[in-house]
Amino acid sequence: MLQPEYSFAVDPSALGLPSRDELVDMRIWDSHYHGTGSHEEIVKYINRMGIERVISLDIGSWGETKEGRKRDEEHQSLLKKWRELLSGIIRIDPGYPHKSLKKMERWIRNGPCIGIKYSGLIELDVTCDHPNSDPIIQLAEELGAVIYIHTWIKVGGDPRYAGGGNYTGESTPMDVAKLAERFPDVQMICGHQGGDWELGIRAIRPHENVLMEFSGALPTSGAVDLAVNELGTDRIVWGGHGPSRSYANELSKVYDADLSDEERMNIFGRNYRRLAAPIMREKGYSVTI
User: Fold this and answer.
1) Residues sharing a CB contact under 8 Å with residue 232, sequence separation 6 or more, in sequence order
2) What angle, 0 to 180 degrees and rounded to 10, lies between the N-to-C axes of helices 223-231 and 247-256?
3) Which residues are 118's β-sheet partners?
4) CA distance 169 to 166
5) Which residues, 6 or more positions from 55, have their beta carbon under 8 angstroms from its beta carbon?
6) CA pair distance 58, 107, nearest whole angstrom
7) Coil, helix or strand for 152?
8) What pLDDT, on the 0 to 100 scale, is given for residue 218?
C-alpha cells in the first residue's frame, strides 16, 4: 500500500516521541479496531501513525434479515478491497452456540475472517466460561482461529464486588481463566485486561495460553510494566480501540514502559502475527513474523 508523505509542525524527537518512520519500523498490528463503518475516512490516520494492519472486531451479522445480509455484503466488499491492510474477526454469542458455530463456518472456514470475538454485550446471562462455549472453542481450535474475549470488571451489586456491575453476560478475566483452564492448549486473548489492570493481569497470570490486550482504558503509567513483570512480553498484544480511542492514547502505554525496541515489537505486532499466522497463511496471506 502506498504510504503518503507527512510533515509535522513540531519535530517528534524534540518531545521525546517516536517519528513515523520509527513507528513503521515497529510493524504495529492493531488487534482492536472498531472503524469498519467509517474505514475510508479513518485510513488516513492509520497511515499517519504507521500502522501495518488493523483487525476489525465488528465483521458480519447473523445474516437473518435484509439489513443483516446487506451489512454482510458491505463487509465482504470492504475486506476484499482493503485486504492488504484490514482483516476481520466475527462476534459470536455463547448464549446461542449453534448460531455461533454456523456463523463461524460461513465467515471463517468458508470466508475471509480469521477469528472470533466474545462481545461485552451478550444478550443472555452467559459468560465465556459457560459450557456453551465448549463447542465454540473446539471449532475455533480446529480452524486455527484467533479468539478474542472482551472482559471488564465493574464494581457493583449488593453487597458490592468486583464484577458485580457488569452487563449481563459480560465476561471478566476470572471467567477467561476458568475457560483457559478447560482448554490449556488453546490460545486466547483477554481483552482490555478487564479494565482493572491489577486484578486482570493477576487473574490470567497462571494460564500461559492466555494473552492480554490492554486497550480502552486510560494510559496509566506503570500498567504495562506490571504486565511485563507478571506475564512477560510474549503474552501481550496491542490494540488501538479506534475510533473511540486515539492511537496516541494507546501507543503511549507501550512507550511509557521500560522496554527495549525488541520487547516493544513483541507487543506491537509480533505476538499477534505469531498467533494469527497459521490461519492467515491458509487464506493466502504472506505473513512474516
Assistant:
1) none
2) 60
3) 92, 149
4) 8
5) 29, 30, 31, 32, 33, 86, 87, 88, 89, 114, 115, 146, 272, 276
6) 12
7) coil
8) 84
Question: Among 14, 109, 107, 6, which Cα is nearest to 57's?
Answer: 107
Instruction: List the chain residues with pLDDT less than 50.
Output: 1
Q: What is the pLDDT of residue 3?
A: 56
Residue by residue, DSSP assigns 87-113 as: EEEEEE-TTSHHHHHHHHIIIIISSS-
The pLDDT of residue 238 = 98
CB within 8 Å of 9: residues ≥ 6 apart: none
For residues 152, 154, 240, 37, the Cα torsion angle rounded to the nearest 10 degrees is 90
For cell 513515523, what's the residue? 20
pLDDT at 2: 52
- The cell numbers describing 142, all together, are 480446529
Cell of 252: 503511549
Q: Is 219 in contact with 250 (CB distance < 8 Å)?
A: yes
- Three-state SS letters, 159-172: CCEECCCCCCCCEC
* Cα 103 from Cα 24, distance rounded (Å): 35
Unique residue bearing C-alpha cell 476481520: 88
Distance CA(184)–CA(207), nearest Å, equals 7
Nearest to 37 by CA among 99, 88, 109, 95: 88
Strand blocks (E) in 152-224: 155-156, 161-162, 188-191, 210-213
pLDDT of residue 143: 98
- Residue given cell 477467561 in the structure block: 176
